[in-house]
Amino acid sequence: DSGVTQTPKHLITATGQRVTLRCSPRSGDLSVYWYQQSLDQGLQFLIQYYNGEERAKGNILERFSAQQFPDLHSELNLSSLELGDSALYFCASSVVRAGGSDTQYFGPGTRLTVL
Amino acid sequence: AQSVTQLDSQVPVFEEAPVELRCNYSSSVSVYLFWYVQYPNQGLQLLLKYLSGSTLVKGINGFEAEFNKSQTSFHLRKPSVHISDTAEYFCAVSEGGSYIPTFGRGTSLIVHP
């Protein structure tokens, strides 16, 4: 158990819909990262938040957005869903030490299926 | 920009045999290197990481990896695998100062009895 929790575990929805994925980081970790894992794209970094502020952006679509709340939990919002958005979405957290040597601790993931 | 290549998408091996999972990276600056393991239906878990110092890094579950700067490689090895080592293994690299690692496509290690 990494200490990172994600809900829900599974999500099945239809094209055009909007969903929200939730992540609670490990106690003491200030940074949250979101990743998308699919068979064709592998593990893709989406976005990073640090202590409530957006810190880095990766291959995140404009239809996707995220935020980190004062209690440090984070939500990833996916809208106008398409079939190709079906994937595993992982949240990870880290302390954020200087220099980028962090270990990221991953949650169990949310499996999103868009029908 | 950094990139990672895991040379084998799948590595089948018999139980108690040695295994090596290959990883090459590309970067123009100093790097930190990681190996993560993903068991079925679970998130990724850190096996080991290289930050600096000794080029031979020991991790959990009997795994080790060697950083070779001239070959830009960070291959993962285990002298004797178990059935329970069957999983997906990911190599990752982050450049000094960046908190965002780049992950390889993964290598599926399949251990046969």
Describe the structure.
The complex is a heterodimer of chains A (115) and B (113). Chain A has 115 residues and is an all-beta fold. Chain A has no helices and 11 strands. Chain A has strands at residues 5-7, 10-13, 19-24, 31-38, 42-50, 53-57, 64-68, 74-78, 87-94, 105-106, 110-114. In chain A, strands 2, 4, 5, 6, 9, 10 and 11 form a 7-stranded mixed β-sheet that branches. In chain A, strand 4 and strand 5 (42-50) form a beta hairpin. In chain B, the strands form 3 sheets. In chain B, strands 2, 5, 6, 10, 11 and 12 form a 6-stranded mixed β-sheet that branches. In chain B, a hairpin with a 6-residue loop joins strand 10 and strand 11. The A-B interface holds A 2, 4, 31, 33, 42-43, 45, 48, 55-56, 58, 90, 92, 94, 96, 99-109 and B 32, 34, 36, 41-46, 49, 51, 90, 94-106.
State the secondary-structure class of chain A.
mainly beta
Mean pLDDT of chain A: 92
* Cα distance spanning the termini of chain B: 41 Å
The N- and C-terminal alpha carbons of chain A lie at a distance of 31 Å
Instruction: Sketch the topology of chain B as an H/E string, one letter per element.
Output: EEEEEEEEEEEE
> Quick one: biggest sheet of chain A?
7 strands, mixed
Shape of chain B: globular
Mean pLDDT of chain B: 92
- What share of the residues of chain B does DSSP label as strand, in percent? over 45%
What is the helix tally of chain B? 0
Helix/strand order of chain A:
EEEEEEEEEEE
**Alpha-carbon Rg of chain A, integer:** 13 Å
| Proportion of residues in extended strands of chain A | over 45%
Largest sheet composition of chain B: 6 strands, mixed
In terms of per-residue confidence, which ranges of chain B show pLDDT below 50 for 5 or more consecutive residues? none
The count of strands of chain A amounts to 11
Give the number of helices of chain A. Answer: 0
Helix content of chain B: under 10%
What multimeric state do the chains show?
heterodimer
